[in-house]
Amino acid sequence: MLKTIPKSSISKRAFQVNKSWTVSSAEYPIISGSFTTDVAFDKETAIKQEGLYTYPLFKSIKSKYYSEVSNPFLLHGRMSDIGNKNERITGTTGYVVSIPQKKYGEGIQPSSLVFKDLTNANEYSDDGHGNITSKNAKYVISSLDLQSNEISIVDSEGEEFTGTLFSSPGSEAIDLETGFVKMTFNGDTDIVYLVSIDLQEGSIEFELGLDFDGLDIDQLRFGNVIYSEGLVIFNDTATQASSYTMDFKSTKTISELEVLVTAKAGEFNFSQSPSAVTMDISGSYEAEITADTGIVSGSRKITVIDRIETTPYFSGSFNPSISGSWDDYDASASYDPTGSYLAPFISTIGIYDTDGDMIAIAKLPQPIKNLPDYDMNFIVRLDT
């Protein structure tokens, strides 16, 4: 039993799926090289790492990803502010991790990357705009005066911001028990969680980025992620690592085909059981079976069927006052001793293309009785 499905009952939609991955330096070692060397390439003396010449590699990286950040037509990768060259800083030395496409698919999912530097116990992540930042918001301390409670912070773009570590005279700037700090910048006061102060390095870290009205204080950036090409590029502001683990999510677009299959009242409602058909039999005869490989010779009885028709389905209405609940049970019992009205149960739906080839089989969680009085609708979904 087949039925043509109209185009209006077929729809297709695309959506993205993500898969989590964990890679390490054992699989994909870090390749380091210079972004500033400008000498003629000499194959005999050129440095190779992991089978690659580092000089042309880093020249091409600089040219492709860092030279045209102001041109949206030539820009590769994602930026929060196109044209802001401070988002793409190479430094003098770069460190690159290249992930194969079989791992990242159509691209690394933004905000999913976590890079753990096992050599120096540092942790980095991406900000969703192609920038690599530390796990905690990190800034440079330009000056810190504990007598006046004045602090000056330099952000990733070199801008200096001066504020105080208290909101009113006599108030405590730092809660030593909780680590909360009360800070005022540009007349706006906020309470932030202080993670660490490294006076030797000249840095300060907060759990979240600083956010004060009228100010754009950007946390330090340590490199870039080119999501669409699986490239992780660190500049020389990051501590050099030789051992790492990195977590990220890949992206893949798949299409879902949705087909509405409808069985109208009375359609697909004929049982395949012999008791569901009416036949006129004129007799039978014996036919010889040819002896062949795998077939036992002899004879077989052949029944002659002159006419075969399906028995019409039975209709009725629900009546709880009689046994069996159907008011025509007595009339149909002689034809249908099991009381099932010979309605088939739908358990499997096959989808065929225009050439008659099966392209999908849908299995129902449990068989559903195809009642003769009602339309039956099924939605079949398959990924393509």
Largest sheet: 10 strands, antiparallel
Give the overall shape.
elongated
Point out poorly predicted stretches. Answer: none
Count of strand segments = 22
The Cα radius of gyration reads 37 Å
Averaging pLDDT over every residue, what do you get? 80
Which structural category fits the helices and strands?
mainly beta
User: Could you give the distance between the termini?
Assistant: 26 Å
* Helical residue percent band: under 10%
Multimer state: single chain
Binned strand content: 35-45%
Please describe the structure with a list of short key phrases separated by commas or semicolons.
single chain; 384 residues; mainly beta; six-stranded antiparallel beta barrel; 5% helix; elongated
